[in-house]
Amino acid sequence: MQANADLNNNTPAPRKSKKRKKKVNWTLTSVMMVLAIFAILGPLYITVVIALKDPSQMTNVLSLPKQIHWENFKNAWQMTNFPKMFLNTLFITVVNVIFTIFTNSMAAYVITRYRLKNKFFNMMYYYFISAMFIPFNVIMLPLVKEVSAFHMDNIIGITFLYIVFGLPQNIFLYSGFVKEIPTALEEAAEMDGAKPMQIFFKVIFPLMKPMHATVAILSFMWTWNDFLMPLVLLSNPDQQTLQLAQYVFQGQFSTQYNLAFASYVLVLLPVLIMYVFFQKYIIAGVTSGSVK
Amino acid sequence: MQETIKRKPKRKGKKIPFAYYMMVVPIGILFFIFHTIPFLRGVFYSFTDWSGYGTWKFVGLKNYLYMFGNSNITHAYWFTFKFALFATILVNAIALAIAVGLNGKIKYQNFLKAIYFLPYMLGSLIVGFVFKFIFGNLLPSLGQTLHWGFMSSNILGTTHAWIGILIMTIWQGLAFNTLIYLAGLQSVDPEIYEAAALDGVNPWQKFMRLTFPLIAPFFTINLVLSVKGYLMVFDQIMAMTNGGPGNSTTSISVEIYTQGFQGSQFAIQSANAVVLFIVVLTISLIQLRVLNKREERLG
Amino acid sequence: MVEINLKHIYKEYDGNDNYSVSDFNLDIKDKEFIVFVGPSGCGKSTTLRMIAGLEDISKGDLVMDGKVINDLAPKDRDIAMVFQNYALYPNMTVFDNMGFGLSIKKMPKDEIKKRVDNAAEILGLTDFLQRKPAALSGGQRQRVALGRAIVRDAKLFLLDEPLSNLDAKLRVDMRTQIAQLHQRLQTNMIYVTHDQVEAMTMADRIVIMNDGKIQQVGTPDELYNKPTNKFVAGFMGSPSMNFFDAELKNGRVSNGRGLDVAVPEGRLKVLREKGYDGKKLTVGIRPEDIHTEQVALEAMPDAVVSAKVEVSEFLGTDSMLYSRTGETEFVAQVNARDYHKPGEEVEMAFEMSKAHFFDDDTELTIE
Which ipTM value was assigned to this complex? Predict the structure, then answer.
């Protein structure tokens, strides 16, 4: 019970490191900066300049374009059926994030709370945690058979599968968080007359906000960038994602590198824009998802 | 006056409301149907000669025995282990170095951290395509201009193709591992270093005797996740070499995909998937055990 | 009109053969302020939680106004509870925290507002209604927790160590506030604490527990002056009663290690009738019944020991003298005017007419 006081405690955690004025190590700063620019940003620079050039400027690949060819984007946009693929991917991502947060947090909450009191929930906990050791590659052959039998080889079907397949990881993530929420809160709500669903949605769910953010970011990254699951599950050209479309159109681009790279930029851009704005939260979310 | 209700004399624990079961059981059933059943079916098929359609019969361990005799499959294992080993060691060593650098007394720390983490955001498929161009066009033309023989041909077309894939994997894999190591380094109380400085510890001793043991849990996380991830390597191979040239860069996952879906080896690749599962499980468990033990010793 | 009867209540947990609470019997009268007191792990909180419905009752009947309510869900019991760590909902404002129970019951908004405002007024929280719990001090959070119970207008109030997280001064203030609240609300309250001072100052009746069993039920005065056993005698009062293992011989009790005092005629008669003459027993005497004034020394000449003060604490009105006679250590609480420095040899009179005698085996009071 003692640790429970924390939630109501607003005294800021003592700063671990006192800010000490120290001399900046400029040599190290320069090394890290040069490395970042050449090694990390270099390939991205190449991607962008190629996307902006036409084949005649490709003799000097690394130079800045003399003339910017925006039409590469227009052509790539049409060629890869970008709007359709974008909407498909957006649908999968958004629906997956929303449903994942509601359903997975609910299951994780109940399992974490009752697994020490109840054998059934304890069994469920170990069931999901052990499923983390089964990679998708291991189940994909039979899964494809099953999915086509259920006629789920489409955008809605794959979205549904993302929600379900995220469970083991998300139960693990939420579980560590739920443990820290004092049970007295639920008991207080129970004494206040709240029913189980009300206890969860009015008291517990709002408290899980930091973990919702982490789960949302990880789910987003997973679905937006996933290639293997769409590759094996989605065959209808209308029902493809951005990543899959890049693979499918690879052959058609052949040596039209400018178009291909324009297309890559189109796919990378939404994520990059998001990263620019939410960089702090994304980094914090990914860190807290891996490190307790 | 009193209503007496018949009760069992001893009922232990508090009854869990039905609503709580409803919050777990339906999604649990769906998980069972779409995750556990395919897994079990996969294990089942691995003992049959099913080709993905039509009739089948049990063949016992034949598929597993076939796997060991098939040079494509054994090569896929050899390639995947080699790749995972090099990728894990190099990614973790370089990531640790970058993290130490980022944790130093540098300016623009947050900006640099954001840059180094950027590759994590990008899908490996597209990064793979970009590196394919770099290796296939950019570097050879650069090599020819500079008359550097080793760079004048496309490495992805040679027997060293796996090194190209490895480089791209390191480029992308650094992001996550660096972030975790940095989190570990920042969790160390600076007073420990001040105490060490008073004890006259030199920088190398400081790293080996203090820093590294203190960030051991982060090392464990990174190592386990890296090995697991690299044993599954798929996207970048599909983007860069499609498993070639020949089958020199065909990983286990690529083998399962190409032969299981496009070839006619549904049952054999099911057996392959089962073996892959056992390998991943065993390696993960051994790692967790060994690394946790070592952490205990260090801690 | 609320009457609560606990009849032979038992609590047993999985994997634990011993009862956490056993054979708990208590009849609580209307408007009574009951305090459960005892050391940690004695079963007092478990009993409270069984009354709340947060724990199942393993055996026995919980009766409220003539009805057995063992199987009633907490929300149907019309009970309000204040938790040790307040259990305020961190995501809600003070107003929403207090009104949560009412809005769950679908009470009209203006009625909720009326009740919350009223409770806030009583507790001095009117200015804080729109704040979140994190922006409140410990005392304010405590009052919000009380307010959450007040607005419910419940039949029974349960308070589980509500003051244990407050600092000493605030605790004294809140003690008075809660007592006033009880006067004002005129509802039954059951209050759990491990602090015997809280129990003594607030309770109409105290239930003192140890090892899952009730040791004694009574008014503060009864528990202090007529403890039924050694545990109760030792638990109530601070500093604790002095206990000596001694033998009754020739009208005196002596432990052979420095203590040797006469027992007054009346007490001696009872002890002899019960057959303790020449036998071992435990003598208990409260620190305030050991005197150093000249008057006392003269009045009780055959119960005087010569003791050496080892530690002495000056408390303003009193001083505590941690002393030793022979090899026997004891504490005397004397008037501050009789302060003695450590190392002084002091004559002390044991007021044996106020002493307590306990059987060595049963630890029950001999009377």
Answer: 0.86
